[in-house]
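User: Continuing from earlier, I have the next pair ready.

Assistant: Great, send them over.

User: Here they are, in order.

Assistant: Folding the first of the pair now:
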Amino acid sequence: MDDDVLGPIDYLAVEYPDGLMTGEGFELILDLVERDIIRVLDLEFVAKSSDGTVQKVALGDVKHSGTVDASLWQGASSGLLDQADLDTLSEAIEPGSLAGILVYENVWATPLMKALDASTARLVGHDRIMVDDLVAALDESESA
């Protein structure tokens, strides 16, 4: 990447029980990339065996359903993910599962980041609110 200004960088970690990935996610990610909404920076997979042993799984070795062309994502590696990240992810999944971690840039926000960069304004925070937290807060406010 040779961009001077990048959009916010996020990640998603997804567990696939029984070690089988469905293909719908790949197609949706590809659509977001083609529409310049996101840019995939990293895509890594780990598997946790029934005895708890964890190993990195090459994209071409990921078992999936559907007609997915996984080769589109071959080489998606920025170096942001390291072994410690994959170890942390593996702690969160159940034995017998596969997990994928996707790191992506929010390209849609790049014009905003460039505008901030060109002005005296600066971004002083960036975080995510988990959906479960939002639902719980909304439920709590409705019951009050």
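And the other member of the pair:
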Amino acid sequence: MRRLVASLVALALTVGGIGASGAAGAATKKKLLPMPLCPPRILVLSAMPVELSAVMARYLGFRHAVPLTTKTIGGHDYYLGSFDGASIVFAQTGIGPANAKRATDAAFSAFPCKAGPPFREAVFSGVAGGDYIGDVIVPELWTADAGKHVVWSKDWLLSAARASVNDANHMLRTTAPAGDPACGCVTSPDAVTTVAVTHKPVVKVGGVGQTTDPFSGRALPCVPGGGDVFGCAPCAAKTNATRDGEAFGPGVVPFVDPAFFAGYSSSSATGTGYVAEDEETAVVATEMAKRHVAFIGFRGVSDGKGGPLGLPGFPAQFFYYRQLAADNAATATFAFLGTGA
């Protein structure tokens, strides 16, 4: 009997040893095959060609900037480079909340990573309604529903933005360039200047930014050959006229209505209590928060106070000062990125 019990104990120990060894082996194999880390990418978004052209020009002005390459994924164009040890991805969202959400979703699909978010952080650089034309506003939080819900920018990004204010302020423009409205690329959009604003533009960090939707949930299509506002790509980039033309036809139908333009012309942040008002940022901020990606937005003021011509707000001021606002937003964006944020 004792011999039988001893045999059973020995057998149990042997089986247990095999099981433990097998489990240890499996664990070892898992450790030998770690999940690959996502490359440190920065996603830089802009809504319109004038905005994205400005921010890409600032990138290319850096001495060690890697030349940009274009990659088309899922019908969206991405412009890839490298900045301060991190890969950088530029993309144009298109105008309005619906386009902003669609472009954000597309960027995450285009650069998948199983180990976590594909982007270390996301930055929006563009223009907005605000207080003084030429200023750059960096709100602490954003809302897309008049304050019912808000999305905060990450504290460490806001701290980096504050640290970059002095450097950015020295480089902000005061004189409005004529720009390149037709995307003719004949000369630099900043080569011909017009009037100067009545104050020295500065970067301001803080406050609440608002995103509105004058399109009632519809996606405004870009216009092939539509210039630096309604066009489909930065002025210096090649465009896919066939692809963009096919999307434009059916997409523009809902907007062929005089009532739409009457309502659209009322958009402005002046006097609303919001430091900036645009049509994309809060939507992008919300989508980034859902995906645990740090986000911050830089908005140059294109329509507000301080214009010497007495133009009547949006959209007249926007069309006149859009290049100044886009340039200053891009300058502040890269002063911020230069802090190592």
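Worth noting for the second one:
Residues 1-30 have pLDDT under 50 and may be disordered. Residues 41-337 form a domain with the Rossmann fold fold (CATH 3.40.50.1580).
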